[in-house]
């Protein structure tokens, strides 16, 4: 095959599979909504099962559900009949993936499923199949054709099943009100976890925060800054609200301006008013963007009522490997 022919085949595959996924959109009906509602209401776990390529898709769907806050595991249907049925609880919900709806290993589980009253959702290309008839909810994932010329190798059908599983997971996530903060809890490692870190998890708090009154003399401010080692100090008024900050740069400018008399000046006269601040609930990545954009090394973490809650320093972000 020439390069042109190879590219042509690749484009044809992507075209067939994208059309297969697109064709699912008008098929989403009350059955889909009922499936999401059933998954939402279960007090136990979601059990995903499928054989062969469908099993591989099932593993991915289980992983997506789990990462979005819904306990889910994959059980191999052939292994289920050899003891793994003991992993299934009565209050679980089973999601079976079988394009034909006649996969022997899954059909063999129907007696157990019905005897124990476990609810069954099936993703299939034939809603009139045996699995389709015995399911509580059927999700139609039929495709017009596979991408493989003979129509034997699961390609478009597995792409459709995967997309439908993602649709279930995301709809369920939104119904649960699963937020970025929740997502970060389940993804503490890797690049994604770093992107979802909150300021609150990295900031310095309590005694580690350099705070001085606006009436403090600069010599006392220098002592506090030296002790706390963050290169700045928060200046607060008599109601403990943030009035400004004094940085190493502010100290140098004051020394150049006043010379030997600089250390007798008051913090309120030397501080930078209206400093850059951030909320503890913001993403750490936003703090990094603010620091870089303003060419500064620290941000004051301020509460809604104007009080100092902490300091987030560029070094804290470096330690995460974010930069």
| Low-pLDDT stretches | none
The H/E string reads: HHEHEHEHHEHEHHHEHEEHHEEHEEH
- What is the helix tally? 15
Largest pleated sheet: 5 strands, parallel
CATH architecture of the largest domain: 3-Layer(aba) Sandwich
CATH topology assignment of the largest domain: Rossmann fold
Per the principal axes of the C-alpha atoms, what is the gross shape? Answer: elongated
Please compute the radius of gyration using only Cα atoms. 30 Å
Level-1 CATH class name of the largest domain: Alpha Beta
Strand arrangement, major sheet: 2-1-3-4-5
Overall domain count: 2
Oligomer designation: single chain
- State the end-to-end CA separation: 45 Å
What share of residues is helical?
Answer: 40-55%
Q: In what range is the share of β-strand residues?
A: 15-25%
CATH homologous group name of the largest domain: Glucose-6-phosphate isomerase like protein, domain 1
- Count of beta strands: 12
Overall pLDDT metric: 90
Structural class: alpha/beta
Summarize the topology.
Layout lengths: L2 H20 L7 H12 L4 E5 L2 H15 L4 E3 L2 H4 L12 E5 L6 H4 L2 H6 L3 E6 L5 H5 L2 E4 L15 H21 L3 H6 L4 H6 L15 E3 L4 H11 L3 E5 L5 E6 H11 L8 H4 L1 E2 L3 E2 L5 H11 L3 E5 L5 E6 H6 L4
Parallel strand pairs: 1-2, 1-3, 3-4, 4-5, 6-7, 10-11
Antiparallel strand pairs: 7-8, 8-9, 11-12
Helix pairs in contact: 1-8, 2-8, 3-8
Describe this structure in words.
- The protein has 323 residues and is an alpha/beta fold.
- The protein has 2 domains: 3-178, 3-Layer(aba) Sandwich (Rossmann fold), CATH 3.40.50; 199-319, Roll (CBS-domain), CATH 3.10.580.
- It has 15 helices and 12 strands.
- The strands form 3 sheets. It has a 5-stranded parallel beta sheet with strand order 2-1-3-4-5. The protein has a 4-stranded mixed beta sheet with strand order 6-7-8-9.
- β11 (298-302) and β12 form a beta hairpin.
- α2 (30-41) packs across α8 (156-176) and α3 (53-67) runs parallel beside α8.
- The mean pLDDT is 90.
